[in-house]
Amino acid sequence: MKTILPYLFLISIPALISSDYIIMESHQHKKRSIEEHAKNPERELEIYGMKIESKVTSRFAHNVVISRVVNRANESKEAFFEMELPKTAFITNFSMTLDGVTYMGAVKEKQVAQQQYQQAVSRGQSAGLVKASGRKMEKFKVSVNIGPTKKVTFELTYEELLKRNLGKYAMQIRVKPKQFVKHFQIDVHIFEPHGIAFLNVDAKFLTNNLTSIVKKTLTETRGHVFFKPTLEQQRKCPDCHETILDGDFIIEYDVNRDLSAGSVQIINGYFVHHFAPANLPIMPKNVIFVIDHSGSMSGTKMSQTNEALLKILDDMGTEDHFAIIPFDSSSEIWKNAIHQATPSTRTEAKMFVQNIRARGGTNINDPMLKAVSLLNKAHQDKLLPERSVSMIILLTDGDPNEGVSNPTTIQQNVKSAINGRYNVYCLGFGFDVKYSFLEKMALENNGVARRIYEDSDAPLQLQRLEGQVVTCLKQFEASNKKIRTPKAHHSRPRYKSRVHAFTSVDSDPHFIASINDHSDAICFNVDGKPGAILNLVTDPYKGFVVNGQLIGVKEVKDNKKMKTYFGKLGIANNKMDVKVEISTEIIAINHGDDEITFPWSETVSLTKESFSISIVKERNLTLTMGDDAKFVIVLHHVRKNHTVHRDFLGFYTLDSHNLSNVTHGLLGQFYNEVNAVIRNISPRLHQDKLRATMIVKGHKLRVTRVSEKDYRLDSNRGINIPCWFVHSSGKGFIDGIATDYVVSSLFNSLHS
How big is the chain by its Cα radius of gyration, in Å? Predict the structure, then answer.
């Protein structure tokens, strides 16, 4: 199979999702009508599986569409996957899997995509392209040759922000497979932290006696819609060869609302405020655009940035204020002031933006501090509306290489200058952007970061982000007027930990587990011997096992303790007949009779019906085991020919909610809720650390406040995770002692 060259138009998502799935045969090259199906029910190209899965959290949906096709003919056939999308659809991934190998779509600028598409077609390669299809729709189409009895899987991933209209949120899925599908299902999970008021499902193509096959469940905060018709249920009549799957499947719901200031969700000391009161006036915004126009921004990136700013300036209201600070090695404020967004000022600003040219080095520190000072002075001089929101949006493509060039120092300088008063949003352009640096700077200042690829539609992405930022900040600012955070008692300091739950083991080896509904974390080390295999996760009900084998350093000096790391991981699901062995050199997969090996030196994905694996070259891999669990394994490289240390692996749990409640292991025992009480917090003598007493599982333990590392985003430096450290290999916190978790082989369970 040859390389796919589809063009995926990456833009924002509306509530409407229009999907048209069509499989055609190469000698016809046209849609087959219902009448043709009736005449020839035995299809040579058969869609034997189609799954549409959506997970909606706080009105934001992550959607995956999987279509599986088999060629039942005795000769090769060409299958076409065709899908209509709104012009604002934000596609995050498209792939085709043939003979166990996944081929990823490439995102290209329109003219380049068109040229490469035509070249690919002329060479007989598989190619896809998005083209306009009416005023509001675009059509994505891709084809592939399938050998006799072979199968192909198409997978499309997209995201959308649901918008409230006429008192409800709606997600519309157009279902048109044009044939019977043996395994067809729609599976939608909705989670709204402050409650779901109602949940309705409307499928116009279903007759009254078939509406019962749509399963709908609703609890206070969660909704679930499941639709899985059998082949017989898909028939329009008992003897028909026509399918009922031809129409719109609509899910509607709303969140609980009242006349108060809304609801606040609190996690780990952070909070999100959701509300939609009537007649809320538009909140004026004050935006400082800090624009990188260094030499590396030349070409497409610079023109995309300029075009994006022109669009945003067009959309600003007369109550808004803005300033522009272009920078390279040096920086200066356009007209040395913040300006009200009057029509004349916006016209002048657009003329200025159109003439920005790329040159020089990259000094990020100075213009960011200049932006903070500009906002400070404007607020001090009362030049800005009292009820308004202020933000800084940084657009850059590369590393700082002029002035203050240390990323950590820049982050500290910006955070100290802002001191919680403004929000920072960072957009990183290009494939070589220092994204972890930008992301941390944004998160430390109550903002977000986004990566904008050079070939994608940057202007519309930036416009969408700016709109979301303003909406969120309006809510945040309004909530600050009504909510006061109670002061913490002086003897019980609050510690910031991660918002999202996790368990992990990394380095030599350091274990981290969330406690108290993920509001804090406990960490501990395990001292083991090289060659020992430790059980990390065992679920006897699911037949699921994760084990890690320890390796030692090359040399131990001065009788110091031997440091150990995980050099090999074994992950198995006996019920799925899957075994994955991961070392620092290769990834070996056994699935039934299939044996597949990948090196770490390639970026590749593999998708099967029961599991999927995605490898990022020399960095990490993500393993998803059906609906049961999802993990990330990080590869750590040490300096070549290092005299002491070796390459090693880190293991992180992203999702385990479908594992059973009897799951155990050094990490698995913490997949279920763990509660602990921290008391008697006091400084340690002669050290800038805290110590305390922890009461957990009936034990009273002495613990110390430390920071461990999360290396998922940055395998070199990692992100600090504050946690309470339990001494003596976690004794008293883990069940039993560490040696109880030693197993005899890489795929043995804890109880075998």
Answer: 28
